[in-house]
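Exercise 7b. Backbone tokens:
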């Protein structure tokens, strides 16, 4: 039996019991101070103070044993200690040296220059990154590098000279370009000497490297990031669900929906009550009853939509029937960035939170340095991501997921236990100024690819001018050619009298080919050739190909090249 007490110099000693209930020593060898009390009484007096003793400074009281030290001595010399928020300033403490047992990490002496400020006009400091002997400072609207343990001296010859200095953080030198990290430090990722981050205030994605700042969002994705980054909002937003509580029951007893136990207590909401579906109530929501917020320790742990049961973290007060309940939580949009060490890509996820007025959306995509382009969109929505020892991980629903797991068979396209198709959208645009008739489609690769759609360019608008208002027109006469979908090689197979035929792709000389069947609607004044008409007509064709749902599910499906046979239109 032991307890801790604090004695002067912020030191910790042990307060120990000397004997047990039978009078036997609990820890022989301890010094014993009282002279008028037997060391080992025949009947232990557990209420007498003499039955306790304080251990001396050396561990176990042994000769030359390790002594306890004074520890960290915290002190405050200012008579006024009001907090000051200096959003553009860094502060550093005293040194820490484990070899010499020096620990001044909680010492902030106002008598020394322990702060370093950057330009307040450029916003608050959002992130610090130490690189070699420099400190990179990311503000909302500027990026700078500060010297560590050295300073820059400007010479009379208009040059600079770097030398050691007593200051911890020396000269702050801004990078060229009016860029910052906005309020999204979670978008930051680093690999080697390349740093990646977003600046949603300027609608761009940036790379900071030896050659300075580069807008990598300009590599074919300027419009996309300009439009989508502007929708990511700062600050928290309210997501609330209002429900009229028709009293059924509320209890702290066991029972109810077995898979959610032991989440209790719970309240039962009437399934016929006035309000939204119970699927809108999510874990983590606080509860407001008739405009009064319940204790914040009471929040939703789970919901059973089958019987209207809402499981809570603590026992709620009695809620009267007919009360208006609001289930509330505060959410925030997010930008998550990470370096994918496995694919050597910068992975970025733009996430819009679900609020009372908006639905949750996300977009996860990757940038590849080897081609200087944004190569892929992904179907997973991570909480955050990271790389470790050539493996890429992400977190979702409080679970850690490993990507590119090659030990588990047939797991391609599987994210967070949800399988999604892999697809690619591309444009056939040879001789862009010539109108063409696309007749066939062929691809080189593996079995298991299908065509979801093929469409041509839009033909424009034929205005319809009503007699009552000649200044208005309708765009309902805007036309676009399209084809039927094309099944994969295996899924398009069928038998007639035992002979196999293909309704989709067929294989010829190890290339998968298919005819294009026009599925466009008949247009006014169009000459109809009946079933002899095939293909689509236009300047270019947009094609979406995806993996099917049955051929080697989760296995490798390669796609090398796609081509089309076309004729130049004669009219």
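Sequence design result:
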């Amino acid at each position: 039996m032991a307890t801790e007490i604090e004695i002067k110099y912020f030191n910790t000693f042990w307060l120990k019991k000397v004997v047990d209930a039978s009078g036997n020593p609990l820890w022989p060898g301890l010094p014993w101070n009282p002279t008028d009390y037997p060391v080992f009484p025949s009947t232990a007096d557990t209420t007498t103070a003499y039955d306790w003793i304080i251990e001396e400074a050396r561990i176990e009281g042994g000769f030359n044993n390790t002594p306890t030290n004074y520890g960290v001595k915290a002190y405050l010399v200012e008579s006024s200690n009001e907090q000051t928020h200096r959003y553009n300033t860094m502060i550093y403490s005293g040194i820490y040296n484990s070899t010499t047992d020096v620990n001044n990490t909680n010492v902030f002496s106002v008598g020394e220059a322990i702060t370093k400020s950057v330009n307040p006009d450029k916003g608050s400091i959002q992130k610090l990154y130490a690189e070699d002997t420099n400190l990179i400072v990311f503000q909302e609207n500027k990026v700078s590098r500060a010297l560590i343990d050295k300073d820059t001296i400007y010479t009379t010859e208009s040059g600079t000279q770097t030398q050691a200095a007593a200051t911890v953080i020396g000269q702050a030198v801004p990078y060229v370009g009016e860029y910052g990290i906005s309020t999204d430090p979670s978008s930051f990722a680093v690999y080697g000497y390349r740093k990646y981050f977003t600046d949603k205030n300027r609608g761009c994605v940036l790379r900071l490297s030896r050659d300075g700042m580069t807008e990598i969002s300009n590599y074919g994705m300027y419009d996309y990031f300009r439009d989508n980054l502007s929708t990511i909002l700062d600050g928290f937003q309210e997501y609330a669900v209002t429900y009229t509580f028709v009293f059924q029951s509320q209890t702290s007893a066991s029972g109810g929906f077995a898979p959610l136990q032991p989440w209790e207590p719970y309240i039962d909401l009437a399934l016929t009550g006035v309000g939204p579906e119970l699927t809108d109530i999510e874990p983590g929501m606080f509860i407001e009853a008739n405009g009064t917020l319940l204790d914040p320790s009471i929040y939703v742990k789970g919901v059973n939509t089958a019987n209207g049961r809402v499981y809570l973290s603590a026992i709620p007060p009695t809620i009267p029937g007919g009360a208006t309940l609001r289930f509330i939580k505060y959410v925030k949009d997010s930008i998550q960035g990470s370096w994918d060490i496995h694919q050597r890509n910068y992975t970025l996820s733009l996430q819009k939170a679900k609020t009372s007025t908006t639905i949750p959306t996300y977009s996860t995509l990757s940038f590849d340095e080897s081609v200087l382009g944004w190569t892929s969109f992904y179907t997973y929505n991570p909480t955050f991501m990271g790389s470790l020892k050539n493996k890429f991980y992400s977190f979702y629903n409080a679970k850690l997921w490993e990507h590119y797991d090659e030990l588990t068979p047939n797991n391609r396209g599987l994210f967070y236990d949800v399988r999604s198709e892999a697809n690619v959208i591309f444009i056939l645009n040879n001789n862009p100024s010539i109108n063409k008739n696309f007749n066939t489609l062929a691809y080189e690769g593996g079995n298991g690819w299908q065509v979801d759609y093929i469409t041509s360019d839009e033909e424009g608008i034929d205005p319809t001018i009503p007699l009552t208002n000649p200044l208005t027109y309708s765009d309902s006469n805007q036309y676009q050619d399209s084809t039927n979908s094309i099944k994969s090689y295996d899924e398009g197979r069928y038998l007639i009298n035992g002979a196999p035929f293909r309704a989709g792709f067929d294989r010829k000389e190890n290339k998968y080919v298919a005819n294009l069947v026009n599925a466009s609607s008949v247009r006014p004044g169009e000459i109809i050739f009946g079933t002899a008409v095939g293909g689509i007509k236009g300047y270019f064709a947009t094609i979406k190909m995806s993996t099917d749902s049955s051929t080697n599910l989760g296995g490798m499906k390669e796609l090398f090249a796609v081509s089309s046979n076309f004729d130049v239109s004669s009219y």
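Instructor comment: Residues 505 and 514 are 5 Å apart (CA to CA). The chain has one helix and 44 strands.
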